[in-house]
Amino acid sequence: MKNAYVLLATLCFPFMLVAQKKNFHDKSILADTHNDVLSSLVVDQGLDISNRLSTGHSDLVRLKEGGGYPVFSIWTDKEPRNKEGCFKDAIQEIDSLVSWHTGTRDAYYWQQIMRW
After folding, report:
1. Residue 88 near residue 78 (C-beta atoms within 8 A)
2. Listed residue (76, 96, 95, 97) closest to 87, CA to CA
3. Contact, 77 vs 71, CB < 8 A?
4. Sign for the pseudo-dihedral over CA of 61, 66, 69, 71
């Protein structure tokens, strides 16, 4: 009988851990402090992060499922993508976020979030 209890505990323990992790995740405020999907938006002009993507790790569907807050990074390589230079590269990434945000009714400005 003792072996049956040990077996039952061994089988149930992983499920209890998963439930505890989910509970902890749901109660936590999470922030991805380095989301570089904007570089992908600039390089791949047809990319639509409003829908679940088959590549990469960031799209609006996953951001909603995760329940966290992304902090989008603006990054340029030491060799610019444009002949105008790295500053132009950075502006393109910022513009890609603004363009995507403007066309997405499910996205919020930080001022709206702070009112919650």
Report:
1. no
2. 76
3. no
4. negative
Neighbours of 72 (CB within 10 A): 19
pLDDT at 108 over 80: no
Question: Could you give the CA distance from residue 96 to residue 92 in angstroms, rounded to a whole number?
Answer: 6
Query: What was the pLDDT predicted at 42?
Result: 79
Domain ranges of the chain: 30-115
pTM of the model: 0.57
Q: Cα torsion at 56, 60, 62, 68 (round to 10°)?
A: 120
Q: What is the pLDDT of residue 109?
A: 57
Dist. CA 108–CA 46, nearest whole Å:
22
Q: Which of 69, 62, 80, 75 is nearest to 113 (CA)?
A: 69
